[in-house]
Amino acid sequence: MTASVHIVGPQFSTFVRSVQLCCEEKGIPYTLGPEVDGRPVALHSPAHYALHPFGKVPILLHGERRLIETPTICRYLDGAFEGPALQPEAPWPRARVDQWTGVLAGYVDQALVRRYLLEFVFPKGVGGAVRQDAVAAAQPELARVLGLLEGQLAEGDYLVGDDFTIADAIAAPMLDYLLGLAAAEAFLAETPRLVAYIRRLQARPAAARVLVAPELG
């Protein structure tokens, strides 16, 4: 089994960045990119579907092993490699980390990334314009999930207590992008704990090597 891993996917993907963060936090050597064994793997090509039956990224390659789905990949990296633990040992806090990992990778990703952020990154309006009706439709659920995260952060510096976990690795890239979006300023003004949390994530050495907060509009 090789000591390093390869993350298949584009670096701008929030979920690819989550896997990167886990590698960086634990000191796991890795390579990254949309290729396997030096050969490019085009998105939704037969080669891509051979790696992931639903045509998603990231895909983790570790020697002969192949693994899909970001939460599963992150848990594997935490268990298979030395380095700082990204999950609590005790059953209850570990279950809460798993719970938040699932909530983030499912509901929060849908509300924040798929239905809101991507409209600014890849606008589908006439002439490449942002569809303001789509943005308006996404805003109520965006506000709701941001409020949910704001409330959770009353418990500690990170999503589950005072230690960085896999849940934070899932949250960090999507929130990093949101903080760089001018259109989201009004929402973030209502969630000061969440903004402080994002800044805390961005200040971590691992994040400095992974996260980028572009001005999206």
From TrEMBL:
Class of the enzyme per the UniProt entry, highest EC level: transferase
Protein keywords: Transferase
GST C-terminal domain span: 90-217
GO CC, any one term: cytoplasm
GO molecular function: glutathione binding; glutathione transferase activity
Enzyme Commission number: 2.5.1.18
Domain annotation GST N-terminal: ranges: 3-85
PANTHER family reported for this sequence: GLUTATHIONE S-TRANSFERASE RHO
Protein name: glutathione transferase
